[in-house]
Amino acid sequence: MNWDQIEGRWTEMKGKARASWGELTDDELDQIGGKRDQLVGKLQQKYGLAKEEAERKADKWADEQ
After folding, report:
1. What pTM, to 2 d.p., does this model score?
2. In the 8-state DSSP scheme, what is residue 22?
3. Which pLDDT belongs to residue 17?
4. How far apart are CA 53 and CA 43, in angstroms?
5. Which of 19, 28, 39, 46 is the most buried (most CB within 10 A)?
6. How many domains does the structure of the chain reveal?
């Protein structure tokens, strides 16, 4: 699924994101709003990932949806 689709369906995608990244709070998921750059930033912050690794994980997650 591409990021435009994820952003458009974010309400239903939040549960899947929460299942993948349990450290993200509901408020943080609301702030992300399906935006790739926001998700990447939160993954970096919460999980201590480098930007490239966070981008890889976010894109892999999107591809699996």
Report:
1. 0.92
2. T
3. 95
4. 9
5. 39
6. 1
pLDDT in tens, 1-50: 999 999 999 999 999 999 999 999 999 999 999 999 999 999 999 999 99
How far is the C-alpha of 8 from the C-alpha of 34, rounded, in Å?
7
Angle made by CA atoms 31, 36, 41, in degrees to the nearest 5: 65
Q: Which domain holds residue 21?
A: 3-64
CATH number at residue 7: 1.10.1470.10
- Cβ pair 45, 18 in contact under 8 A: no
Burial 31-64 (b: 16+ CB within 10 A, else e): ebebebebbbbbbeeeeebeeeebbebbeebbee
Residue 4, CA distances (Å) to 23, 29, 60, 62 in order: 24, 16, 15, 10
* Per-residue confidence (pLDDT) for residue 29, from 0 to 100: 96
